[in-house]
Amino acid sequence: MPADTGIEGRDQAPSEVRVAGEVEELERRFQELVDADQRIEPRDWMPEGYRRTLIRQIAQHAHSEIIGMQPEGNWITRAPSLKRKAILLAKVQDEGGHGIYLYSAAETLGVSRDELVDLLHSGRQKYSSIFNYPTLTWADVGAIGWLVDGAAITNQIPLCRCSYGPYGRAMVRICKEESFHQRQGYDILYTLARGTPRQREMAQDAVNRWWWPSLMMFGPPDEASQHSAQSMAWGIKRHSNDELRQRFVDVTVPQAEVLGLSLPDPEIRWNEDRGHYDFGPIDWDELRRVVSGDGPCNRQRMAHKVAAHENGRWVREAALAYEAKLEAGYKRGARASGRAA
Ligand code: BYC
């Protein structure tokens, strides 16, 4: 059954009405392309479920980038130096840019950015659970960069090979920028961890608060992940939620050791047999609560987002009015030159 995205099915043009057996043949060819690691492009035939799944995931990703500007934006005016402020400003602007590339990728699937924004504002589409936690100190900016962007890269590198061309291509650039974001977060924590006892304590406190929510970013455990199997068969996802979560833990534990900070999980230890770090149980009730709107900052994030959208209405209207005026001018010009000819 296609995922419910709040998006209407695509109207079928008369030329698209299929004779019996034709859809099966199209599906077979589509799956062959996916299995051969070929890309599906916007004008190619695709199953309706594939289109809806992509819209759901790409829109959720775009919304996350835009909402993700809020927790860090909170620290732009209070960054501890001009250099840190310039870096943070650039990072937050990058997140806005990522949102825009992703909305553009979703638009190639026949949905408009306005529709997607409406679906977010009316609560029918989601954004990542991680952005419903508060940024209490400057060290949180470091922890977001190191852990949240680190988790994002782990999840997003495989998306560069997503079977849908526009999404995969958008991810290539996004991942390059995310790598810089992760480094800047690590650098903030590295500095704080070698600072005064108070700064070190602040860094440790931030890591304690962001560790578990970062593990939750990868989604529910595999047995509860309703979309993974189909998304993997369609080449949208390349790895399961648990595989990526494990990969993130494996690269992050040694980095914590270099930082000299601990991770808030007494069960983390290297497992020689598995060749991976073991880690403790995740509080899935917390993820469910946050995803269903009851995290520490859900209401605040959405209220701010909707207010920013309303405050920007006049800019969008002015841009449309200007475009209409230009178009009318061109038409008048074209008519005048037609008469002269
Ligand atoms: N938060 O079947 P599952 C960033 C939902 S931006 C909320 O495993 P799927 C950054 C899921 O949507 C980070 N909801 O789903 C930005 C589904 O519900 P629906 C965002 C979650 O899609 C600024 C249900 O749970 N990254 O990094 O196969 C600054 C069942 O899950 C979450 C992306 O969006 C969650 N954490 O797998 C810094 C990456 N997890 O839709 C950093 C692209 C699950 O049926 N997205 N749900 O109502 C993905 O890779 C996949 O969509 C997910 C989930 C791995 C997240």
Oligomer: single chain
The mean pLDDT is 94
Q: Which strand order does the major sheet show? A: 1-2
- Structural class by helix and strand composition: mainly alpha
Helix content: 55-70%
Bound molecules: benzoyl coenzyme A
Question: What is the general shape?
Answer: globular
Strands, total number = 2
End-to-end gap: 59 Å
Biggest sheet: strands, sense, closure?
A: 2 strands, antiparallel
Radius of gyration: 23 Å
Order of helices and strands: HHHHHHHHHHEEHHH
Q: Can you give a write-up of this model?
A:
With 341 residues, this protein is mainly alpha-helical. 65% of the residues lie in helices and 2% in strands. The chain has 13 helices and two strands. It has a two-stranded antiparallel ribbon with strand order 1-2. Strand 1 and strand 2 form a beta hairpin. Helix 2 runs antiparallel to helix 4, helix 6 packs antiparallel against helix 7 and helix 6 packs parallel to helix 8. The radius of gyration is 23 Å and the shape is globular. The chain starts with 21 loop residues before the first helix and ends with a helix. It binds benzoyl coenzyme A. The site of benzoyl coenzyme A has 29 residues, from helix 2, helix 6 and helix 9.
